[in-house]
Amino acid sequence: MDFIKALEKNDTETIISIRKSDIHSHGGRGGNPSFISEKTGVKIPSPPQKFDSLSHMQEWFDHNIKPVCRGREGNILRWEACFAEAQRNNIVRLALSFSIGDIELVGGMEPFVAILNGFKEQYCPKTSFEPELAYSAYCNMKDEKERIADFLEYGFFRSIDINSGENVQLFKNFVPLYQKAEEYGMVKRMHVGEFGTADDVRNAVEVLGLDEVHHGIAAAASKSVMQLLADRKITLNICPSSNVMLKVAESYKEHPIKILVRNGVPVTINTDDLLIFNQSIDKEYSNLFHAGTLTAEELNDIRLRGIKEI
Fold this sequence. Notes:
By secondary structure, the chain is α/β, with parallel strands linked by helices. The protein contains 16 helices and ten strands. The protein has helices spanning 2-9, 12-17, 33-40, 54-64, 71-88, 100-105, 109-123, 141-152, 175-183, 198-208, 223-232, 240-245, 257-261, 274-277, 281-290, 296-306; strands spanning 20-26, 91-98, 128-129, 132-136, 159-163, 187-188, 191-192, 212-215, 235-238, 267-269. α5 packs parallel to α7.
């Protein structure tokens, strides 16, 4: 396989040219810093090797990224960067998450859909674009469950997610959102098991009926939870650089993706926040291979699963 040979030869150009997915990426943070620098004329500094916490990461983003792309037009530029990166890195399956705040920033669903579809057609018309509606774990459920249908009725969103923190509310509090998402045939995802525990992963899957888990690497600590995920074919959408730079994983070499894969848990490899971590999808694969975490064959199988060819 060309991808296997390219990893073994460290042939970046070929790795970039081969079909890949990125299905755990945040719309306002998923573009390449070089694209932003080219468009604005402002050089984005390299991030630190490690962040002390999520709040430290957010502070870095607020200080180094937001001043370069502020407000409505700045947000739109960051969205554009995601599609430009999909074109550059041959990402044929792209899921980007957006908040209700993103929708409201541009004046509602109709302009929001038009802007994103316009970028898709401009940069990567053959890419399967799977927009995700993401809610903060801190959201007011009383308000959100009343208006979620207003956003879903457009048929634009393909999946739902809860992010921005773990164990902020009881999983059962989010059930109304996930029930509504299921009515619309959406993929049910959640950020869980990144900073939390294997039991958190199990409970979220069972309470919310998750189809996939964003992160979920804490499951590697429990044979029974890994068996549950393997038996139910629940994919973990893993972001290695995010995990390493946020100190969730010790290193690429010690990343728990190895344990998960070798216990039959289906996984994909993704970037999370490329604009912050500055590790594009080709680098995510290369980092794991050159660290000796997974074989080229295992990484190719993960790539094929991400583009739904396995």
